[in-house]
Amino acid sequence: MNMLKSTIFVLSAMALQAACAERLTYAGPNGGTWHAAGVWRNEAGASVSWTDGATAVVGDVDIVLNANAVAEGFDWTPASRRTLTGSGRLSVGAGGLVNGGALEANISNVGGLHLTADQTWTSRATSGAGMICLDGMHPVTTAEGVTVTVTGRTQLRWNARAALPATTTFHVVAPAYISFSPGNAAFGSPTVILDGNGNRLSFGNLYDQKNCIDGVLASVLHLRNGADMVFVPGYATQLGIPRIVVDGTPAAGDMSSISGAADTSLTQSQTVVDVASGCCLDFSLTCAEKDVSASFVKTGEGLMKLRSAKAVFTGGVDVRAGTVEIASAAGAGTGPVAVASSATLVLTAAGTLPNDVSGAGTLMRSGTGLLELTGDVSGFSGDMALVSGTLRTPLLGRSVALSEGAAWAVTGEHAYEKDIAPRLAPRSAGTVLAGAGGTCVVGTLETPHRL
Predict the structure, then answer these.
(1) Is 20 helix (H, G, I), strand (E, B) or coil?
(2) How far is CA 250 from the centre of its chain?
(3) CA-CA distance, 168 to 177, in Å (whole number)?
(4) C-alpha closest to that of 172 among 160, 184, 190
């Protein structure tokens, strides 16, 4: 409780500091110099020169910064595309960046931007999107532990070259979104939180596809409250973020998704996907791997759907908690699938699943049509529940619960009473079939056998 009170006090103090900072309004000419004498007006209307620590209020003008300046905030209202240029560096405090309109506020000073405190970047636009553009591939740096919250109808156009650390956070709240420029634009390795239904992150354009990897985008990516990440369709890219978190309280029916791009290469040997209870990640990228044997580790009590029609990564899927649904027979790549005792693997695909399956968790079959497990499943010691559709497997050593309308096709030659019946859970009500090339004998009656 004391820590919570201290945190609230610090945040309140920062907000108070930003609110109490002197506001200086630029009154110089279009294209004038930030540090020219007498070009600012204080709140009493008197002509003054710039004083570090004030909040800069700038209207529909270009302005040149040729020496370093420290501003508590930067409130800029362009009525057309306007630019901040020059050789100086602008340091911004808790007052953050504000685009007062729906057009572009372009920050392209060579000295770049330094963020000294937690802050908000926002647009006061009531329609369209007010763009805050960090342009020219100039540096962006932060103090330790800074969080930048991007809100309102803001398009954050990122054409900067940053190497932000993992202790920096960018939190993008709907309807705001980030638009990455082509070329060498980069965040570095911060934590990026995309918050709110819809695509909160746009990569490149028709001429370029941004690689979504640690060192370029983030070391940790949160998809919160139904946020999506959509790659440019038809262009090759890389996905290499060590940890993806899906959280929040999405509206009923909303799920987060990672989609798009015809050809995606996984660059992390292990990607941890932590999906909170009540949340879902729909992963449908067509993906191979680059220079690693790529794998997914699923944690958290929520659901991850593997829906790629063409996934050929080889490291497999480790389901440590919650549920993974394989909704396409190719969705889990070609590597092994391990299901921990507290986890569930749901199979809704039809066709042939090539993966080895092991573990002590629950395997559930639902959906329609026939799904055949052709990998080695001898290491699976958990229970199976067949809810709908048909699942073809070898005879397994653990309990199988059959629901009405579901079918279990058992490969090999087995006597029903001796081999199969002991595996069926009480009150099973489905159908047992003989797998291809095998027989299921009940006395003199061969397949099928209705329960």
Answers:
(1) helix
(2) 14
(3) 18
(4) 190
Output the average pLDDT for the chain: 89
Q: Pick the closest to residue 293 from 313, 312, 311 (CA basis).
A: 313
Tokens of 334: 């070609």
Amino acid at 370: L
Q: What is the pTM of this model?
A: 0.90
Cis status of the peptide bond prior to 242, with omega within 30 of 0 = no
Pairing of strands 449-450, 431-434: antiparallel
Q: Which of 115, 125, 113 is nearest to 145 (CA)?
A: 115
- At 100, the amino acid letter reads G
Structure tokens at 230: 């959509």
Mean pLDDT within 294-317: 96
Question: Residue 309 CB: number of other CB atoms within 10 A?
Answer: 11
Residue type, 393: T
CB 267 within 8 A of CB 213: yes
User: Predicted confidence band at 204 (pLDDT cuts at 50, 70, 90)?
Assistant: low
Q: What is the DSSP string of 193-261?
A: EEESSEEEEE--BTTB---EETTTS-SEEEEETTEEEEEPTTSEEEEE-SEEEEES-PPTT--EEEEE-
Least confident window among 7-16, 89-98, 282-291, 300-309: 7-16
Grouping H, G, I as helix, E, B as strand and the rest as coil, residue 18 is helix
The whole-angstrom separation of Cα 122 and Cα 99 is 6
Block residue for tokens 């709140």: 43
Closest residue by Cα to residue 298 from 327, 325, 322, 266: 322
Q: What is the C-alpha to C-alpha distance for residues 414 and 393, in angstroms, rounded to an integer? A: 13
pLDDT level of residue 9 (50, 70, 90 thresholds): very low
CA 153 to chain centre: 20
